[in-house]
Specification:
230 residues, OB fold (Dihydrolipoamide Acetyltransferase, E2P), 2 domains, five-stranded mixed barrel, two-stranded antiparallel sheet, 7 helices
């Protein structure tokens, strides 16, 4: 029997940092998002390749990505950042996010194979999400220590508002909107539509409750309902 037929071919291996650099480029190409499956236009003339497909094509040489030193530098930065994120989660929460652990285990190796590119493709998104949360936390901290309650429970309130964060809550099928007044007082309200999320402008609502939030350093937050953007 032919020796090549008896022995399985070795799986092709790639540098983890090179794969991650390609993942950074793919993330940029798809406008800082993860495209899970290739999207075809209605007339089939154009398509948006999934992040995984972009990386795979690059590694196999069928459609090379244009990688710069910046992509490789960012890849190295992502590895360090996600490792530190896992350490911090272990210290503050007692355990780290399972997906973060899985990605870090792959990134800790020098080499990887095609089977891991679907997971590596998510590393830039995970990095971006963690950085965004960190920036929001730092920005929010500026107001948490000096925020005061606004108005009184049951009263109507009209104020200028600047968004700090909006987050979709699947169980409530709504967005929790969180921001501050010009005086630095923290306001939150629920919005059932993205159009009702005020980024910067004037809002009007009724004071539903006033609470010290354990999630915001015990900051004083005024919660509104029946909110309208003026």
């Amino acid at each position: 029997m032919n020796k090549e037929l008896r022995e399985p071919k070795m799986k092709q291996k790639f540098s983890v940092l090179s794969v991650l650099a390609a993942a950074v480029s793919a993330f940029e190409i798809n406008r800082n998002r993860i495209v899970r499956d290739t999207i075809h236009s209605e007339d089939k003339t154009t398509k948006i390749l999934s992040n995984k497909e972009l990386i795979k094509n690059h590694l196999l040489g069928t459609e090379l990505l244009s990688l710069s030193p910046a992509h490789h530098n960012q890849a190295a930065g992502i590895v360090n950042y996600l490792q530190q994120a896992q350490i911090m989660q272990n210290l503050t929460l007692g355990n780290a996010n399972k997906f973060l652990i899985e990605i870090n285990e792959i990134l800790a190796s020098n080499e990887t194979t095609i089977k891991d590119i679907g997971i590596i493709a998510w590393a830039p998104k995970l990095y971006s999400d963690y950085k965004h949360k960190e920036e929001i936390k730092e920005f929010s901290a500026q107001y948490e220590f000096r925020s005061n309650f606004v108005g009184s429970i049951g009263s109507n309130l009209e104020t200028d508002f600047t968004l700090i964060e909006s987050k979709y809550i699947p169980l409530a099928n709504c967005y929790i909107v969180y921001g501050h007044t010009p005086d630095g007082n923290l306001i939150s309200y629920w919005a059932n539509d993205k159009k009702k999320i005020c980024e910067q402008g004037k809002i009007k609502g009724r004071v539903k409750k006033q609470e010290k939030s354990p999630y915001r350093g015990d900051a004083k937050i005024t919660v509104l309902n029946y909110v309208k953007i003026l």
